[in-house]
Write a structure and sequence with these properties.
With about 600 residues, this protein is α/β, with parallel strands linked by helices.
Length: about 600
């Protein structure tokens, strides 16, 4: 299915609203025609035509006789009873009433359509966000956050403006055009055929403009994504930019992208705006030609009277706006296709994790976790190579090694953020790629090197993802174990204090304590600690170490460390040393020291 088709597919749920909208548009179109045609009797009254000619003759003979008889009867009746002036007044009020009915149903059509438009946009945003949550972490390594934000905000807004909003005109405009052309055909078939021959002129000129819109529109949206990515990069790096006096360099980068985006945006909008005046100008030419041709028929006395010509011109003038709206809608749809393709690219993204055959349910770890000949490639780069080790229930394994040695990759594979390229990771003999992912992750807790906190209360950050009711006592106990309770209770609103995104109003140590409290409250069977003690002051480091010792007690733990803490190393049940994605040494602390190899070298360098 095309991107545009997928976006339009969202409208299927609102088919009954569309039916009501179409009915309202039909009534609106009918009264639009009647309100214009009803001017003809007024012209008859003003022109004071002779009795034998004072007939409503703007329909072909034999068509709509009942309408002719109806109008003629009341004209004659009112002329006889009230005279020309009062009859003219009555018919003017009648025409006002017709215009009121016409616009009332126009509003009703829009009323129901607004609910459809806003609901479609809401559903697209909801599905977009849901898709983001379902994708593997590996997917996001190739995507910039600014580009994703641009797709969710700007591209979805462009879809709303260009596609969803255009649906209204694509429904109502053809109805209006059809009704008016149908009526014109019965008023004077010769003049209508003349109009139909001329109308393709508008379509040919405008289609040339429309076809050139799409590529420019897609380029402009891509550049806007790059701008947002650069803004995000600037905000995250503002300290480094200032300290290295790189403002001019960063500004030039931004201005270069911004300038290209401006050029593309101008090109798109100029072409888009050209469609309307071109169609209006061509429509005006056609209207003048109608007056010329109709006047020629009248002068030559070929079945043409002023009572026919003036309403005919009025009805054709009514066609210009819906025809122009239809052209604009088609133009906007082309412009919106670029945004639709960018949004649908995310909606159609396949989860990199193997979600098929995940039928094995799991609710606890009974024996051990095993890495069996596990290798992992990313972008044709081998990150870990033929890893083999076991993590027994209730034991602690510590991964050590230089930066880039593959420690975090091992942790991410255990968390099943992505599947191993070869080999397998098993839980009690079951390959984790076949476990039901939600069940498996209920067993896991993780504390990352950079704490992830949300713009919410401390209470909600600690209880994140816990669906069952939990007492404040349990929350406080978790915070105490993490050495977080003492600083939380000093905050203005305690546990109900709202923190900034990623806890920017907290210290590094405070953020890590909240992350640890979150993991403790979940009470997972397996816990992953990824360089939790790094980048802290001495006092916070000691407090976090004490909290970690309490977390890993009687719990299956995988700990990644950059800095080798003797107390933790001695307590570990097994230490694995990684180098360039391979296990180069493994064993207990004293055994590795006695080997006088990689591990002892790391300890010596740290001591130095």
């Amino acid at each position: 299915m095309s991107a545009l088709g997928k976006i339009l597919d969202y409208s299927k749920s609102y088919k009954y609203y569309y039916i009501i909208n179409i009915i309202c548009n039909l009534i609106h179109s009918l009264f639009s025609v009647i309100s214009i045609i009803s001017i003809s009797p007024v012209l008859n009254i003003l022109l004071e035509a002779p009795k034998e000619k004072n007939k409503i003759s703007f329909f072909m003979n034999g068509s709509f006789d009942f309408i002719k008889i109806y109008f003629q009867y009341y004209i004659d009746l009112y002329l006889y009873k009230y005279g020309r002036t009062h009859t003219l007044t009555i018919f003017c009020f009648f025409i006002i009433f017709l215009f009121f009915i016409r616009n009332f149903f126009r509003y009703l059509a829009e009323y129901f359509l607004i609910g459809i438009k806003t609901s479609i946009v809401q559903n697209i945003r909801n599905d977009f966000h849901k898709k983001i949550l379902s994708l593997s972490l590996l997917y996001f390594s190739d995507k910039k956050n600014g580009d994703l934000m641009s797709r969710l905000s700007n591209d979805v807004s462009e879809i709303e403006r260009s596609i969803v909003h255009s649906l209204a005109n694509l429904i109502s405009s053809p109805i209006m055009v059809f009704f008016h052309l149908f009526t014109l055909l019965f008023m004077n078939s010769q003049l209508t055929l003349f109009v139909i021959i001329l109308l393709p002129m508008i379509g040919i000129f405008v289609s040339i403009i429309i076809n050139s819109l799409k590529d420019d529109a897609k380029g402009a949206q891509n550049q806007l994504g790059k701008i947002l990515s650069l803004v995000e990069e600037t905000l995250n790096s503002i300290r480094i930019i200032n300290i290295f006096d790189a403002k001019n360099h960063i500004q030039k980068r931004f201005e270069k992208i911004s300038e290209y985006q401006k050029i593309l945006s101008c090109r798109v909008n100029r072409k888009k705006e050209l469609a309307a005046p071109v169609s209006e100008f061509l429509g005006s030419i056609i209207m003048i030609l109608i007056i010329w041709y109709g006047g020629k028929l009248y002068i030559e006395k070929k079945n043409m009277t002023p009572e026919i010509l003036f309403p005919f011109v009025g009805l054709f003038f009514q066609i210009i706006n819906p025809a122009k709206s239809l052209v604009n809608s088609i133009s906007n749809m082309q412009k919106g296709k670029a945004a639709a393709e960018r949004v649908v690219e995310i909606l159609d993204s396949q989860c990199i994790l193997n979600n098929e055959n995940r039928s094995i349910s799991i609710n606890q770890l009974n024996h051990e976790i095993s890495f069996c000949n596990v290798s992992f490639f990313y972008n044709k780069t081998l990150l870990i190579n033929n890893i083999n080790f076991s993590l027994k229930k209730g034991k602690t394994v510590v991964l050590v090694g230089k930066s880039g040695s593959g420690k975090s990759t091992v942790a991410n594979l255990l968390a099943n953020f992505y599947d191993a390229t070869s080999g397998k990771i098993t839980i009690d003999g079951n390959n984790i790629k076949y476990l039901q992912i939600r069940d498996y992750r209920k067993l896991l807790g993780i504390v990352t090197q950079e704490p992830i906190l949300f713009n919410d209360t401390i209470l909600n950050n600690i209880t994140l993802g816990i669906e069952k009711n939990i007492s404040i006592h349990d929350i406080i106990q978790s915070a105490k174990i993490a050495n977080a309770h003492s600083f939380i209770k000093r905050l203005p609103k305690g546990y109900h204090t709202i923190i900034d995104y990623n806890g920017h109003n907290l210290s590094s140590g405070q953020k890590k304590k909240i992350s640890i409290a979150r993991a403790i409250l979940k009470n997972p069977s397996i816990i992953i600690l990824d360089e939790v003690i790094s980048s802290l002051d001495i006092e916070s480091e000691i407090e976090i170490q004490n909290a970690l010792h309490r977390i890993i007690e009687n719990r299956t733990s995988l700990i990644i460390v950059h800095k080798l803490y003797r107390s933790l190393m001695k307590k570990a049940d097994h230490i694995i040393v990684l180098e360039k994605g391979k296990i180069v040494e493994q064993g207990k602390h004293h055994f590795l020291i006695s080997k006088n190899g990689f591990y002892k070298n790391l300890m010596t360098l740290q001591s130095f």
